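Task card 7
Instruction: Convert sequence to structure tokens.
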Amino acid sequence: MVGPARPVFVLFGSSIVQFSYGDHGWGAILADIYARKADIVLRGYSGWNSRRALKVLHQVFPKDDVVQPSLVIVYFGGNDSMEPHPSGLGPHVPLPEYVDNMKKIALHLKSLSDKTRIMFLSSPPVNEEQIFQTIGVRGRTNEACRVYSEACLKLCQELDIKCVDLWTALQQRDDWKTTSFTDGIHLSSEGSKIVAKEILKALREAEWKPSLYWRSLPTEFEEDSIYDPVGLDGKNINISELEISRTVQWE
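Output:
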């Protein structure tokens, strides 16, 4: 490990998580916003469902680790919601089992530490025609994503866990089908902006102590220094929280 110690945020999920650092993804956005405030750790596994995630849960989040995450953001559901293949192979997980798997994941994460906070992301919508045109497959429907999204939201309400309703959030734009995805499933930079915005909103509204909202966290080594750049007035300018490099000003 390197120091000083910062809060650790873990992103745990399938390809929506694994790809979140590419193409101006939402994981990269969070890493930028939380620079000098928290470490964003990626644990994304393309193609995975909740069943497979459950099998490695104790390896990814061992209970005996000295340092436990301050926040875990979890996304599984899109692959689970795919239509079952006649062979029995493939990622489909029946809805009752999906809910049970997600409950087990949530309870394990809750047991890591009294200070570990959890946020689930519900299944985002999909553009079925774009999937067929770019990947050439069918079997993932927007209606199924809605059903699994609502099940995730209901479970989180029962367990008192923060949940971001991605299925609804992404469809607020009239042009969501043409702007939100790279292939009908995975998020474009525009889609990722919406995801990042919703996560930050949830963090801002969470009544957690201490707050994990980025503007509430201290900036590492933020003190004034004689080595800071010098302004026209001859005085040092503290640039530890400078945001001028960002094209989007986040709340």
